[in-house]
Amino acid sequence: MNEIQTLFKNVSLVTSAQIITNICAFIWTIMIARYLGVNDYGILSFAISFTVILGMGTDLGMSAYSTRELSKNRNLTKKFINNIIPFKIILSIILFIIVTIVLSLLGYNKLVIEVSLILVIENAFICMINFLNGVFQAHENQKYYAIGTILYSILLVLLTLITIFLKLGLIAVALSYTLAYLINLIYISLKINKEFGIPKFELNLPFWKKTALKSIPFGLSIFFYAIYFSIDVVMIQFLTGNYAAGIYNSAYKIISVFTAFYVIYNVVIFPLMSKLYSRNKNLLKLSFEQSIKYSILILLPICIGVYLYSPYLINLIYTEEYALASDPMQILIWTVIFLFINGVASSLLNAIDKEISVTKTYTIVAFFNIILNYFTIPIWTYNGAAITTVFSEILVLAIMLYCISKTEYKPDHSLIKTVPKLIISNIILGVVLYYINVSFWIAIPIGLIIYIISLFITKSIDDTDKYIIRELLGK
């Protein structure tokens, strides 16, 4: 099986799981938001964002670093498993203590603290799952990741239904997240035992030190990435209250469903890029360029559709109580396309040992995001945070493309010529949908037909695309 077929097999597997997950996420997002109401949903949103930011301390970038190193040398698998697991357990305990102290000093009420601490435990489970899944990623085995993701998603829907039916409240909602991830962790741990044997925990301090130091660039990148993607909810809650945080996060949750494309591809593309870096640099460059092209080709029409039908989608998904979320969603939807391209670019830089560039990028953007949020949120509240998020993604793209332009993986002129063609195709789509002004469900098939015709008119499909299709078919 060639590299492209392997990539397609893994993408297909993860995509299938992600489709099921997205359906479940769509269901539990609606149920939780409607059940809690804007204010309590704002508390939950704050707790999730706050623990995501501090939760990076339980990983330190070790999951990404381990995936890269094991992609290059799978013989190190047991050594990483035996050492990283106990290391993460210790870090999780330390983080729990730190969060308790920080929230108490900041004067948050008992409910906020309790919900946050429950989600700290959930975050510890997530970080451990990410590491174990990263081991399977390095071995190009996405089956267990897919099954675990489906298991978690279905469980969370069921637990949410029970919570709502019994009217157990906000604490029970937070516990539902944690319990679902715990079962996912148990499942993936059993599969690790099956594939690589029961871990024999080691306290190899020199290895811990080396791994931690090597992981720092990845960890800082993830930390600052989490800041600029999560700090907005924290700052909205702090500056304007729970209601605004609930409105913003309800729009953001819908956007996160669309960003599943990024999650799917990033799970597969990073270990592949790491392997190709040492084996086939031409194919590595091809995978990078085509990833950019296909992200624009697939995601830009979705962005246009959501922008045009945002009010309808908000009313369909939530209740009229969340009608104000339409405006931030129209702004946030444009982050999807940048998020995907930036994710591919960061995967390339990490794979070619340029992780320091990624760290610097996210550090700069995190501070940019905080400063801009500080000025925009008091003026435009959740819309200000949405605008800041879009500008942050644009800044990430500019810096990363500059870094890549200094390497041998600088995109060819063919890609530069293709991007305007794709943009023109989508402008045609947007203009037609705007003027015909049909209902959302009728717009989907009409838009698809218009878009396909536009792609052929602009000649956006080239010989490379045809080659990849032949490779996928094994011809």
Q: How would you summarize this macromolecular structure in one to three sentences?
A:
This protein is mainly α. It folds into two domains: 3-411, no CATH class; 412-475, no CATH class. Helices cover 86% and strands 0% of the residues.
Q: What would you call the shape?
A: globular
Order of helices and strands: HHHHHHHHHHHHHHHHH
The profile of the biggest β sheet is: none
Helix content: over 70%
What is the averaged pLDDT score? 83
**Rounded to an integer, what's the Rg over CA atoms?**
22 Å
Strand-residue fraction?
under 5%
What are the low-pLDDT stretches, counting only 5+ consecutive residues below 50?
A: none
Annotation, overall tally of beta strands: 0
Number of helices: 17
Q: State the end-to-end CA separation.
A: 12 Å
The figure for the number of domains is 2
Outline the secondary-structure elements.
Elements: H1 3-55, H2 62-72, H3 77-105, H4 110-138, H5 143-166, H6 170-196, H7 205-240, H8 242-258, H9 260-279, H10 281-308, H11 310-317, H12 326-332, H13 335-351, H14 355-405, H15 413-436, H16 440-457, H17 463-472
